[in-house]
Amino acid sequence: MRETNFTFVDDDGEKIFVYKWSPEDNQPKAVVQIAHGLVETAARYRRVAEALTANGYLVYANDHRGHGQTARSLEALGDWGEDGFNASVQNLHHLAGIIKKENPGLPLFLFGHSMGSFFVQNYLTKYPLDLQGVILSGSNDSPGLALNFGIAIAKREMAKTGPGTRSPKLNKLAFGAYNKGFEPARTPFDWLSRDEAEVDKYINDPYCGGIASVGLYYDLFRGLKETYKQENRQRIPRELPVYIFSGSKDPVGMNGKGVRKLVRNYQRLGLKDLTYKLYQDGRHEMLNEINRDEVTKDLLNWLDQQTAKAKRKPTGTGNTIGD
Predict the structure, then answer these.
(1) Containing domain of residue 63, as a range?
(2) Structure pTM?
(3) How far apart are CA 242 and CA 7, in angstroms?
(4) How many domains does the chain have?
(5) What's residue 320's pLDDT?
(6) 72: alpha, beta or left, given left = phi > 0 and alpha = psi -120 to 50?
(7) Residue-level pLDDT at 58
(8) Residues of the chain predicted below pLDDT 50
Protein backbone atom coordinates (compact mmCIF):
# COMPACT_ATOMS: atom_id res chain seq x y z
CA MET A 1 0.00 0.00 0.00
CA ARG A 2 1.19 3.48 -0.85
CA GLU A 3 0.10 6.41 1.35
CA THR A 4 -0.02 10.03 0.25
CA ASN A 5 -1.74 13.08 1.72
CA PHE A 6 -3.21 16.26 0.35
CA THR A 7 -5.51 19.08 1.39
CA PHE A 8 -8.32 20.98 -0.27
CA VAL A 9 -9.95 24.25 0.73
CA ASP A 10 -13.69 24.14 1.24
CA ASP A 11 -16.27 26.83 0.52
CA ASP A 12 -15.67 28.47 3.92
CA GLY A 13 -11.91 28.62 3.46
CA GLU A 14 -11.19 25.68 5.78
CA LYS A 15 -8.26 23.47 4.81
CA ILE A 16 -9.37 19.81 4.85
CA PHE A 17 -6.73 17.10 5.28
CA VAL A 18 -7.07 13.91 3.22
CA TYR A 19 -5.39 10.49 3.35
CA LYS A 20 -5.05 8.61 0.08
CA TRP A 21 -4.14 4.93 0.15
CA SER A 22 -3.36 3.26 -3.16
CA PRO A 23 -2.73 -0.32 -4.32
CA GLU A 24 0.93 -1.08 -5.00
CA ASP A 25 0.29 -1.72 -8.70
CA ASN A 26 -1.64 1.58 -8.96
CA GLN A 27 -4.36 -0.15 -10.97
CA PRO A 28 -7.46 0.14 -8.78
CA LYS A 29 -10.76 -1.47 -9.74
CA ALA A 30 -12.90 0.90 -7.64
CA VAL A 31 -12.70 3.60 -4.97
CA VAL A 32 -13.83 3.58 -1.34
CA GLN A 33 -14.30 6.96 0.35
CA ILE A 34 -14.37 6.80 4.17
CA ALA A 35 -16.10 9.15 6.62
CA HIS A 36 -14.82 8.58 10.17
CA GLY A 37 -16.66 8.98 13.47
CA LEU A 38 -16.90 11.59 16.23
CA VAL A 39 -13.73 12.57 18.16
CA GLU A 40 -11.49 10.24 16.19
CA THR A 41 -9.41 10.52 13.02
CA ALA A 42 -9.27 9.02 9.54
CA ALA A 43 -5.79 7.71 10.38
CA ARG A 44 -7.48 4.95 12.40
CA TYR A 45 -8.72 3.42 9.13
CA ARG A 46 -5.22 2.66 7.87
CA ARG A 47 -5.59 -1.05 8.70
CA VAL A 48 -8.79 -1.51 6.73
CA ALA A 49 -7.20 0.54 3.95
CA GLU A 50 -4.40 -2.03 3.83
CA ALA A 51 -6.96 -4.80 3.29
CA LEU A 52 -8.86 -2.75 0.70
CA THR A 53 -5.79 -1.75 -1.30
CA ALA A 54 -4.48 -5.33 -1.21
CA ASN A 55 -7.73 -6.28 -2.96
CA GLY A 56 -7.49 -3.58 -5.62
CA TYR A 57 -9.39 -0.67 -4.04
CA LEU A 58 -8.21 2.91 -3.90
CA VAL A 59 -9.11 4.58 -0.58
CA TYR A 60 -9.61 8.22 0.35
CA ALA A 61 -10.48 9.47 3.85
CA ASN A 62 -10.57 13.06 5.07
CA ASP A 63 -10.34 14.28 8.64
CA HIS A 64 -13.59 16.14 9.30
CA ARG A 65 -13.62 19.71 10.56
CA GLY A 66 -12.41 19.84 14.16
CA HIS A 67 -10.82 16.39 13.86
CA GLY A 68 -7.38 14.95 13.23
CA GLN A 69 -5.05 16.92 10.98
CA THR A 70 -7.89 19.18 9.81
CA ALA A 71 -8.20 20.66 13.32
CA ARG A 72 -5.98 23.68 13.68
CA SER A 73 -4.50 22.41 16.95
CA LEU A 74 -5.02 19.74 19.58
CA GLU A 75 -6.93 22.33 21.58
CA ALA A 76 -9.30 22.84 18.64
CA LEU A 77 -10.27 19.17 18.44
CA GLY A 78 -14.01 18.64 18.71
CA ASP A 79 -14.95 22.16 17.57
CA TRP A 80 -16.00 22.24 13.91
CA GLY A 81 -17.18 25.84 13.67
CA GLU A 82 -20.48 27.25 12.52
CA ASP A 83 -22.94 24.81 10.92
CA GLY A 84 -20.29 22.09 11.02
CA PHE A 85 -22.63 19.19 10.31
CA ASN A 86 -23.74 20.52 6.93
CA ALA A 87 -20.24 21.78 6.17
CA SER A 88 -18.80 18.31 6.87
CA VAL A 89 -21.33 16.67 4.55
CA GLN A 90 -20.45 19.26 1.91
CA ASN A 91 -16.77 18.40 2.41
CA LEU A 92 -17.54 14.75 1.62
CA HIS A 93 -19.30 15.90 -1.54
CA HIS A 94 -16.32 18.11 -2.46
CA LEU A 95 -13.89 15.24 -1.95
CA ALA A 96 -16.09 12.91 -4.00
CA GLY A 97 -15.81 15.39 -6.85
CA ILE A 98 -12.02 15.36 -6.57
CA ILE A 99 -12.03 11.55 -6.52
CA LYS A 100 -14.15 11.31 -9.63
CA LYS A 101 -11.92 13.78 -11.49
CA GLU A 102 -8.79 11.83 -10.52
CA ASN A 103 -10.37 8.43 -11.28
CA PRO A 104 -12.83 8.81 -14.16
CA GLY A 105 -14.95 5.74 -14.77
CA LEU A 106 -14.12 3.94 -11.51
CA PRO A 107 -17.04 2.90 -9.27
CA LEU A 108 -17.22 4.97 -6.07
CA PHE A 109 -18.44 3.57 -2.74
CA LEU A 110 -19.09 5.85 0.25
CA PHE A 111 -18.39 4.30 3.68
CA GLY A 112 -19.40 6.00 6.93
CA HIS A 113 -18.79 4.90 10.51
CA SER A 114 -20.77 6.20 13.50
CA MET A 115 -21.04 10.00 13.09
CA GLY A 116 -19.64 9.47 9.59
CA SER A 117 -22.57 7.12 8.88
CA PHE A 118 -24.97 9.92 9.84
CA PHE A 119 -23.13 12.24 7.46
CA VAL A 120 -23.59 9.63 4.74
CA GLN A 121 -27.28 9.18 5.52
CA ASN A 122 -27.69 12.95 5.19
CA TYR A 123 -25.52 13.05 2.06
CA LEU A 124 -27.91 10.68 0.33
CA THR A 125 -30.76 13.14 0.79
CA LYS A 126 -28.87 16.06 -0.77
CA TYR A 127 -26.50 15.54 -3.62
CA PRO A 128 -27.12 14.25 -7.15
CA LEU A 129 -23.79 12.44 -7.21
CA ASP A 130 -23.26 9.12 -8.97
CA LEU A 131 -22.37 6.40 -6.45
CA GLN A 132 -22.21 2.67 -6.89
CA GLY A 133 -22.92 1.87 -3.26
CA VAL A 134 -23.04 2.99 0.36
CA ILE A 135 -21.77 1.30 3.53
CA LEU A 136 -22.99 2.27 7.01
CA SER A 137 -21.07 1.01 10.06
CA GLY A 138 -22.04 1.53 13.70
CA SER A 139 -25.12 3.49 12.69
CA ASN A 140 -28.66 4.05 13.94
CA ASP A 141 -32.04 5.39 12.97
CA SER A 142 -33.86 8.34 14.52
CA PRO A 143 -34.06 8.27 18.34
CA GLY A 144 -37.30 10.22 18.07
CA LEU A 145 -38.15 12.82 20.68
CA ALA A 146 -34.72 12.44 22.28
CA LEU A 147 -33.37 14.56 19.41
CA ASN A 148 -35.61 17.48 20.36
CA PHE A 149 -34.47 17.10 23.97
CA GLY A 150 -30.81 17.16 22.88
CA ILE A 151 -31.34 20.21 20.67
CA ALA A 152 -33.03 22.09 23.52
CA ILE A 153 -30.24 21.33 25.99
CA ALA A 154 -27.51 22.22 23.49
CA LYS A 155 -29.24 25.49 22.61
CA ARG A 156 -29.52 26.40 26.29
CA GLU A 157 -25.85 25.55 26.91
CA MET A 158 -24.80 27.68 23.93
CA ALA A 159 -26.77 30.63 25.24
CA LYS A 160 -24.94 30.35 28.57
CA THR A 161 -21.37 29.62 27.45
CA GLY A 162 -21.06 30.05 23.67
CA PRO A 163 -20.76 27.43 20.90
CA GLY A 164 -17.03 26.77 21.30
CA THR A 165 -17.08 25.69 24.95
CA ARG A 166 -16.96 22.06 26.09
CA SER A 167 -19.95 20.67 27.92
CA PRO A 168 -19.53 17.64 30.18
CA LYS A 169 -23.34 17.65 30.44
CA LEU A 170 -23.82 17.18 26.68
CA ASN A 171 -20.97 14.69 26.54
CA LYS A 172 -22.69 12.64 29.24
CA LEU A 173 -26.00 12.94 27.40
CA ALA A 174 -24.42 11.64 24.18
CA PHE A 175 -22.06 8.99 25.59
CA GLY A 176 -22.80 8.55 29.28
CA ALA A 177 -24.95 5.45 29.00
CA TYR A 178 -22.83 3.63 26.44
CA ASN A 179 -20.54 1.89 28.92
CA LYS A 180 -23.29 0.82 31.34
CA GLY A 181 -23.88 -2.45 29.53
CA PHE A 182 -20.26 -3.45 30.12
CA GLU A 183 -19.91 -2.76 33.84
CA PRO A 184 -17.76 -3.46 35.71
CA ALA A 185 -15.73 -1.79 32.96
CA ARG A 186 -11.96 -1.62 32.67
CA THR A 187 -12.09 1.83 30.96
CA PRO A 188 -14.71 4.44 30.01
CA PHE A 189 -14.43 3.20 26.41
CA ASP A 190 -15.06 -0.53 26.77
CA TRP A 191 -18.15 -0.02 24.58
CA LEU A 192 -15.91 0.45 21.54
CA SER A 193 -14.51 -3.09 21.29
CA ARG A 194 -13.86 -6.35 23.14
CA ASP A 195 -10.22 -6.03 22.05
CA GLU A 196 -8.50 -4.34 25.00
CA ALA A 197 -5.46 -3.40 22.92
CA GLU A 198 -7.68 -1.51 20.47
CA VAL A 199 -9.45 0.32 23.30
CA ASP A 200 -6.08 1.31 24.78
CA LYS A 201 -4.90 2.56 21.38
CA TYR A 202 -7.93 4.82 21.21
CA ILE A 203 -7.41 6.12 24.75
CA ASN A 204 -3.72 6.83 24.13
CA ASP A 205 -4.31 8.62 20.83
CA PRO A 206 -4.26 12.40 21.42
CA TYR A 207 -6.68 12.84 18.49
CA CYS A 208 -9.33 10.59 20.03
CA GLY A 209 -11.81 10.66 22.86
CA GLY A 210 -12.01 14.34 23.76
CA ILE A 211 -15.12 16.30 24.67
CA ALA A 212 -16.77 17.98 21.69
CA SER A 213 -18.00 21.58 21.72
CA VAL A 214 -21.53 22.65 22.52
CA GLY A 215 -21.88 23.94 18.97
CA LEU A 216 -20.90 20.56 17.53
CA TYR A 217 -23.59 18.76 19.47
CA TYR A 218 -26.19 21.38 18.55
CA ASP A 219 -25.35 21.06 14.84
CA LEU A 220 -25.19 17.27 15.03
CA PHE A 221 -28.60 16.92 16.66
CA ARG A 222 -30.18 19.37 14.20
CA GLY A 223 -28.51 17.63 11.26
CA LEU A 224 -29.90 14.28 12.38
CA LYS A 225 -33.39 15.73 12.68
CA GLU A 226 -33.22 16.97 9.08
CA THR A 227 -31.81 13.66 7.87
CA TYR A 228 -34.70 11.65 9.28
CA LYS A 229 -37.50 13.76 7.83
CA GLN A 230 -39.50 11.53 5.53
CA GLU A 231 -39.58 14.08 2.71
CA ASN A 232 -35.78 14.16 2.73
CA ARG A 233 -35.37 10.40 2.85
CA GLN A 234 -37.63 10.10 -0.16
CA ARG A 235 -34.76 11.54 -2.24
CA ILE A 236 -32.62 8.42 -1.78
CA PRO A 237 -32.48 6.51 -5.09
CA ARG A 238 -34.24 3.15 -4.88
CA GLU A 239 -31.59 1.36 -6.93
CA LEU A 240 -28.65 2.39 -4.73
CA PRO A 241 -26.97 -0.64 -3.08
CA VAL A 242 -26.66 -0.19 0.70
CA TYR A 243 -24.74 -2.39 3.15
CA ILE A 244 -25.29 -1.87 6.88
CA PHE A 245 -23.29 -3.69 9.54
CA SER A 246 -23.02 -3.36 13.29
CA GLY A 247 -22.39 -5.26 16.50
CA SER A 248 -25.33 -6.75 18.37
CA LYS A 249 -23.95 -5.08 21.54
CA ASP A 250 -23.29 -1.68 19.96
CA PRO A 251 -24.99 0.93 22.17
CA VAL A 252 -24.99 3.50 19.33
CA GLY A 253 -27.31 1.18 17.39
CA MET A 254 -29.30 0.39 20.57
CA ASN A 255 -27.94 -3.17 20.62
CA GLY A 256 -29.28 -3.86 17.15
CA LYS A 257 -32.73 -2.35 17.70
CA GLY A 258 -31.87 0.93 16.00
CA VAL A 259 -30.08 -0.84 13.15
CA ARG A 260 -33.11 -3.03 12.43
CA LYS A 261 -35.30 0.09 12.53
CA LEU A 262 -33.03 1.76 9.96
CA VAL A 263 -33.26 -1.31 7.73
CA ARG A 264 -37.06 -1.39 8.00
CA ASN A 265 -37.33 2.29 7.11
CA TYR A 266 -35.09 1.81 4.07
CA GLN A 267 -37.19 -1.17 3.06
CA ARG A 268 -40.33 0.98 3.32
CA LEU A 269 -38.67 3.51 1.04
CA GLY A 270 -38.34 0.74 -1.52
CA LEU A 271 -34.57 0.30 -1.59
CA LYS A 272 -34.03 -2.73 -3.77
CA ASP A 273 -30.45 -3.75 -2.92
CA LEU A 274 -30.23 -3.63 0.86
CA THR A 275 -27.99 -5.90 2.93
CA TYR A 276 -27.36 -5.82 6.67
CA LYS A 277 -25.50 -7.90 9.21
CA LEU A 278 -25.39 -7.85 13.01
CA TYR A 279 -22.32 -9.55 14.49
CA GLN A 280 -23.11 -11.45 17.66
CA ASP A 281 -21.73 -9.71 20.79
CA GLY A 282 -19.83 -7.19 18.67
CA ARG A 283 -19.52 -3.66 20.05
CA HIS A 284 -19.28 -0.30 18.29
CA GLU A 285 -16.13 -0.56 16.17
CA MET A 286 -16.54 -3.80 14.25
CA LEU A 287 -13.43 -3.08 12.17
CA ASN A 288 -11.47 -3.03 15.46
CA GLU A 289 -13.25 -5.99 17.07
CA ILE A 290 -11.79 -9.39 17.91
CA ASN A 291 -13.46 -10.81 14.79
CA ARG A 292 -12.35 -7.93 12.53
CA ASP A 293 -10.91 -10.33 9.94
CA GLU A 294 -14.39 -11.80 9.42
CA VAL A 295 -15.92 -8.31 9.25
CA THR A 296 -13.32 -7.10 6.75
CA LYS A 297 -13.80 -10.21 4.60
CA ASP A 298 -17.58 -9.64 4.52
CA LEU A 299 -17.01 -6.01 3.54
CA LEU A 300 -14.67 -7.01 0.72
CA ASN A 301 -17.12 -9.63 -0.53
CA TRP A 302 -19.90 -7.05 -0.72
CA LEU A 303 -17.64 -4.54 -2.45
CA ASP A 304 -16.48 -7.14 -4.98
CA GLN A 305 -20.07 -8.08 -5.80
CA GLN A 306 -21.13 -4.47 -6.24
CA THR A 307 -18.01 -3.57 -8.23
CA ALA A 308 -18.76 -6.41 -10.64
CA LYS A 309 -22.36 -5.21 -11.01
CA ALA A 310 -21.28 -1.61 -11.56
CA LYS A 311 -18.84 -2.58 -14.29
CA ARG A 312 -21.54 -4.53 -16.13
CA LYS A 313 -23.72 -1.43 -16.39
CA PRO A 314 -23.45 0.71 -19.54
CA THR A 315 -21.53 3.95 -19.07
CA GLY A 316 -23.62 6.70 -17.54
CA THR A 317 -26.19 4.45 -15.84
CA GLY A 318 -24.89 4.74 -12.31
CA ASN A 319 -27.14 5.35 -9.36
CA THR A 320 -27.72 9.09 -9.33
CA ILE A 321 -28.63 10.37 -5.89
CA GLY A 322 -31.73 12.49 -6.04
CA ASP A 323 -33.32 10.69 -9.00
Answers:
(1) 2-142+229-320
(2) 0.95
(3) 29
(4) 1
(5) 35
(6) alpha
(7) 98
(8) 315-323
